[in-house]
Amino acid sequence: MDFRVLGALEIIGPRGRVELGAPKQRALTAALLCRAGQAFSTDALIGALWGDNPPRSARKNIQVYVYQVRKAFAAAGAPDRLHLEHAGYRLVVNPGELDIDRFNELFARGRTELTSGEAERAARTLRDSMSLWRGEPFADLPDVEFLNRQADAWRERRLAAVEARIEADLRAGRHADVVDELFCLVRAHPLHEQFRAQLMTALLLGERKTEALAVYDHGRQLLASELGIAPGANLTRAHQAVLSGKAPGFPTDPGARPRRTVPKKIVPRQLPRGLSDFVGRQAQLTALGNGLARAASGGWPLLVLTGAAGVGKSALAIKAAHLAAPSFPDGQLYIDLAEHNGGEALGQILRALGCAPAELPADPCERQALYRTLVADRSVLVVLDNAANESQVRSLLPGSPRSAAIVTARSRLLGLDSAELVELGGFRSGESAQVLLGRTEAVAEDAQYAEFIADTCDHLPVAVRIAAVRASGRSLQETARRLISACNPLDELVAGDESVRARLTSCYAELDLIGKTALRRLGTLGSAEFTVAALASLLGTSTGHAERSLDQLLDRHLVSRIDDAGGTHRFALSRLTHHFAMELARDPALPRVS
Question: How far apart are CA 580 and CA 565, in angstroms?
Fold first, then answer.
């Protein structure tokens, strides 16, 4: 669909023009387009079409108009566009279908490009925005006051876009091309100070200083006589520029191009605080350290640290990054991708590297290019925490061979080229006990309780640390007793806003429908161990399909493989994951499996 309001109302459907018919039907459609996608109550429509003097039959008339408009849309191949909802009537307009929305998007992009120093690009974008205007908004419906008010607001935005486009032309060195246009604009809008200031700048750049002073003097007198005010800041600055004979930021050569501001070199130090009681992980720390050391010789190190939810990936990545920080003198960047999408994260990185918000390119490809330019001669360490997939990571990888990246993810991110995989499992028995005993005033007999708690927690670091926090307010013996008596240990493994159940829920949400179904069906088993054949039976599918769903669970470390000397491949859920799966299986939406 193509909805056009920047001129006479015009709508083009899949089968051609939508013939809306009588003026009131056109006015109703136009009013709905002013709030595209939002509900418009019957009372509001009556007010929009008739103001304060509606006919007695207004409600009935609205129903008739809606019926006729629906018929017109259907005839043009676009049924189901006009809906009646609880809040009123809503016209469905998809992104990009309404010309005023396209104008606003181009206008915003052009202003961003202008602020970023891309004058040529901004001028092209703003010209594209103006090409959408075919005339005055709702030119065929001049008697509808509601539409007139909306048209006035859009005309103001059009003037702002013209102002921005002329600014871009001036900064691109085309002052001679816009002088005549600006004279016309000043005559049409004599009290518009910015057009007058731009005309003065264009005349100054064309060495027509006397004329520029005359334009200022006429505007000063007009403002005083018509409004009783003195010239504003923009006009005053233009006057001072003419008096000094200098227009900073505006090239006098039509072929000149303004130079882009080079961000001030900043050394970011963004690594979060590490754990004060970090234990173990020596093998993984060594692997990460050796990998990061390759940056010194231009080795393009990319390390993916993967493991189950709550296994301590973030803590290990931050620990390794702090240890390696002296080897990356140009800074350390940290982004939690669970809180930012790719575009937001790249913008945050660029700001950390010294870019002012106004200098950030709007185009994602240009942002990536600027990022790689800024780190091309630097040695920077980038930590990308909690990545969901490869595409989220690629645009954030530094382009310098002397820079490095550590990525943490539940998935193995096998699609990342040249990535070195570092697998992380649970604590060793002694490490779990060290965390538990270190948080409490332990006595000798507490060792047995620490061992029981660690086993119940599957030696999962987040679970062990939560248990240690809870034990610090009670005792290891009391914590062990409560875990024994709990129907589900997940109920006990909660401390403040941290819980094992929340971690598993987050991991479950990342699965597709097949993976979610497989995990829920595994919760119907009495044992945590199973075979592919058993999973296929639970899913009511072939072994091949079961293996594909199992691959997803293995990739996110929700299931582990058990070595079997007999040659039968067996798999198992951890104790805590099995409890979580049993919770899912009790969901009444899941059919019971015998």
Answer: 29
